[in-house]
Design goal:
The chain is α+β, with helices and mostly antiparallel strands. The protein has a domain of 124 residues: NADH Oxidase (3-Layer(aba) Sandwich). It has 7 helices and 5 strands; from the N terminus they run αβαβααβαβαβα. The longest helix has 21 residues. Bound molecules: flavin mononucleotide (FMN).
Length: 192
């Protein structure tokens, strides 16, 4: 691996959706991001995931779904809150829903298929970063809303692994503390 790639992996930071803006990836770049996302470890080649893109006017349209779902689950929500929900997907030029689609296969436990979907999300972040964009992996409340699931056409075997917001950082994030490797790395055999 080149020093530059390693440096990117060592320094990548998410940029919160509120700090993302135009421009977003061009169509060719988006195709590359999606190709990288689909190039993940995938036991038995099940491709137990799919991607749904929100761009342009679709983001505001989907905002109507979010506001309606919010009103339904929280009838006391005020106008300000509903406006926030309606504008969620407008925070970035492109939002990609990564959908975990569990395949019935006795050789590949559900856990492994979910991990593979998580790898798609992480690969998307890295691909966006390699192209000079910034991104954030978000679930927020709507990844778990039944009304939103229905609007996205999710089947019973499907779940949202994440919404990947991609755009250009309007502000660079500061460094974030990372775990002390001495705390999380051990070697077997374990000291008694
Ligand atoms: C499955 C998953 C869901 C997440 N959902 C949210 C979320 O809803 N809101 C949020 O602010 N961060 C969420 N995060 C955290 C951010 O993606 C990110 O890790 C965090 O902003 C720290 O940035 P870093 O990638 O630079 O460590 C989520 C992370 C994961 C793995």
């Amino acid at each position: 691996m080149s020093t530059a790639s390693l440096q990117m992996l060592l320094t990548r930071r998410s940029v919160v959706a509120n700090k993302l803006g135009e421009p977003g990836p061009e169509p060719g770049e988006l195709a590359q991001i999606l190709a990288v996302a689909a190039r993940v470890p995938d036991h038995k080649k099940l491709a137990p995931w799919r991607f749904m893109l929100f761009e342009g006017g679709a983001r505001a349209e989907f905002g109507k779904v979010l506001a309606a779902a919010c009103r339904q689950s929280e009838p006391e929500a005020g106008e300000g809150r509903l406006q926030t929900e309606a504008g969620r997907f407008l925070r970035a030029p492109v939002v990609i829903a990564v959908i975990s689609s569990i395949v019935d296969n006795p050789a590949v436990p559900e856990w492994e298929q979910i991990l593979s979907a998580g790898a798609c999300c992480q690969n998307m972040l890295h691909a966006a970063s390699a192209l000079g964009y910034s991104a954030q992996w978000i679930t927020e409340w709507y990844a778990y809303s039944e009304a939103v699931r229905a609007a996205l056409g999710l089947a019973a075997n499907e779940r949202i692994a994440g919404f990947i917001y991609i755009g250009t950082a309007r502000e660079q994030p500061t460094e974030r503390d990372r775990p002390d490797l001495d705390e999380i790395v051990s070697r077997w055999p374990i000291d008694q």
